[in-house]
Design goal:
Blueprint: H1 5-10, H2 17-27, H3 33-40, H4 46-64, H5 75-82, H6 85-98, H7 101-116
Helix pairs in contact: 2-3, 3-4, 6-7
């Protein structure tokens, strides 16, 4: 693996520039990239500071995203709507109009047969 020019010329040990930038940003979060680059040293450029800041923001956004779930209007939402108080009243009115529970069941079976045609 190729060595960094700054490391190979100066003979210094490897320095984690990203960690230096994050440390400088933790101490002064409102600092501009130029100020952070100057305080971090080790050949850190303002452009690299900006890149690290952007990557930190996108990492936070990715972890804050809501997990995918059941889409709106799915079966579960429909089943909740079916148990709403208004629909229960409608069901009771249907049973009464049919002449009882058994008669309502027979009518629903007829509707199901018609649907299958």
């Amino acid at each position: 693996m190729a060595k960094n020019k700054a490391t190979s010329e100066s003979g210094a040990s490897n320095v984690n520039k990203t960690a230096l930038i994050k440390q400088a940003l933790a101490q002064n979060p409102d600092a501009s990239p130029k100020e952070v680059a100057a305080s971090a040293g080790h050949g850190v450029t303002a452009k690299y500071v900006s890149t690290v800041k952007t990557n930190m923001r996108t990492a936070l956004k990715k972890t804050a995203k809501k997990k995918p779930g059941r889409p709106k209007g799915s079966k579960q939402a429909a089943s909740k709507a079916a148990t709403a108080p208004g629909s229960l009243d409608s069901a009771i009115a249907f049973i009464e109009a049919a002449g009882g529970l058994e008669a309502a069941k027979r009518q629903m079976e007829t509707v199901e047969r018609i649907k299958r045609l």
